[in-house]
Amino acid sequence: MRQPSIVWFRDDLRLADNPALRAAIDRGEPVIGLYVLDEQSDGIRPLGGAAKWWLDGSLRSLSARLTERGSTLVLRRGRAASVVEEVVKDAGADAVFWSRRYGGAEREVDAALKSALRGSGVTVASFGASLLFEPWTVQTGAGTPYSVFTPFWRACQSMPAPRAPLPEPREIPGPQSEPTSDDLDDWALLPTDPDWAGGLRETWEPGEPAARARLREFLAEDLAEYDRSRDEPSAGATSGLSPRLRWGELSPHTVWHETIESGHPAGRFLSELGWREFASHVLYHHPDLATKNLRPEFDAFPWPRLRPAQLRAWQQGRTGVPLVDAGMRELWRTGVMHNRIRMVTASFLVKNLLIDWRRGEEWFWDTLVDADGASNPFNWQWVAGSGADAAPYFRVFNPELQAKKFDPHSEYIRQWAPEYGPDAADLAPPPIVDLAQSRKDALAAYERMRRTSRP
User: Where is this region: Disordered (predicted)?
Assistant: First the structure.
């Protein structure tokens, strides 16, 4: 009897450039795809609502594509380690392959499972598929991880070029009999009461084919203007690839090589891939990135008592500050926000409202379709001043000046917060805080923290 190989899909929901899938196919035995919705293992962070919406669509696409090529996708829910072992037994499999993950809890799950499977005689192998450079391969001359982006990225660029992407398999041999699978509808990943995902459906089509199409479109139509227009939220010059990379519908190797082959100057865009790499490298060395200040002196920051009404106003885009409100409404409607506006809205929460960055990180985790365990907390700590290579705390993004510089004709603001248009000024609510005074309050709080944390 032929013993199948199991490919455990996680954040690599694609067929092209998937080394784990390629390894399974190369064994010459039947291949079973497996996805486990793990919300029970210790330390594994449950997905937010927008991420669940995306996952549903991406799994449907992956399942259809595996079926077209002769294989199948098994869905199971529960603790990953026990579920994978159950599927191995049910399928009579003798090999399991997966792509590596870099969060602390995820690595613990993977290491324990690898040990248990090998102990029972199952072949197990993991592969680098989500990053261009594995975290343990990029170190300072002293053998320590980098804490500043520029030398980190310089070191990456001095290393051998990222490997070429693997081609998409045309055929994937499937098993004669399949293990039982959950029905995806039973997972209830889509919102129903209420159905708040209308804007997500209008904006996105999850899945590998749509991801590949967007990459081609970006390289052909938008990359040439990327450097000039990337900071203008109404210009539409951003790549739109962040959720594709987060869910692994595209590999960074594919994006890297196809970008270079496009012939356009792309240093700035590729450095954004580098920033994504840096976030994952920091997470690898600091697994509690989402909950603990990377710079310990910020543990003494004097956060005032939370004012729930102000937090809700920020979440709902009702702060009375046009650029902030436009950004928060774009986020709710589309599941993403322009990167420049992410910085502005985050700065406003942390420094003008003096609300702990972790509250903002939690909201973005729930509302972003590209919410990522590395990039989301990494970027929030960057804005807050508590993270790696962070913006100095005294750098407070003034949303009025940012609007004048990057949205001078108010196109972005009018699109998402029309009550701030010139003909509707009387409809606009007043700001919930004074920008100048709240900046002074933030800087005073920072000075108190510095005095407290001095040795």
Answer: 160-187
